Structure formats: structure tokens, C-alpha cells
Amino acid sequence: MLKTIRSYIIIAIIAYGLYFVLDHHFIIDGKDFYLLEKSELTLSYTFFNITDRKIESILKIDDLRNDGIGDLLVELGLITEENKNKLEAKFDAEDG
Q1: Are 35 and 26 in contact, with CB atoms under 8 Å apart?
Q2: Which of 34, 55, 56, 88 has the least CB density, counted as fewest CB within 10 Å?
Q3: Per-residue pLDDT reduced to its tens digit, 5-37
Q4: What letter does residue 61 receive in the DSSP assignment?
């Protein structure tokens, strides 16, 4: 009985870990990392390294842009709010 309960607890922990990974973008910047919540459960861009990438190439990715990576880039001081808005509008117009 105790063995069965322990198995269920382990399965629940693993399931939650998988759900957490599917529900977040792990943004890596050098030795630091940041979490962005995804708009849907997928594995796309789960781990994304922004080190040595151009801001335009980061914001060009729809999944990351829609989930708020622009705000994170502003918080990190890598881009201004004004430039973020211009680039997001540019890429949204290309998609639309």
C-alpha cells in the first residue's frame, strides 16, 4: 500500500514537472535565466538563448513575441519601450 502511494506521488511530481516545462519559456541570458509563461502548452522555444542574438531576430519569433519577450528585453535594458513597440508592430504587420 505504501509502495503504491509512493509511486503515485512520484508520477504526480513527474507529471507536474512536464506540465511546468510545457507551460514556460526558459530564456537564457549568459549565466542568468528567466521564465516566460507560454500562451499554449508546446515544446516550441521552451529553451531559448538570447545571448549574442540581435533584438530583431528575437522579436521576429511569433511565439516568443506573443508571450511577452519584448517586455523582458525592456526590463533587461536591451531595448527601449519605444523600439520594442516599433519592432512588434513591424512584425505583427508582416504576419497579418
Answers
A1: yes
A2: 56
A3: 999 999 999 999 999 999 999 999 999 999 999
A4: -
Distance CA 38, CA 44 (A): 10
Looking at residue 96, what DSSP letter applies?
A: -
Question: What proportion of the chain, given as a percentage, has pLDDT over 70?
Answer: 99
Total Cβ atoms within 10 A of residue 40: 10
pLDDT band at 96 (very low <50, low <70, confident <90, very high): low
Cβ atoms of residues 26 and 37 within 8 Å: no
Residue identified by cell 528575437 is 58
If you search the block for the grid coordinates 512520484, which residue do you land on?
Answer: 10
Q: How far is CA 96 from the centre of its chain?
A: 22
Provide Rg for the chain, Cα atoms.
17
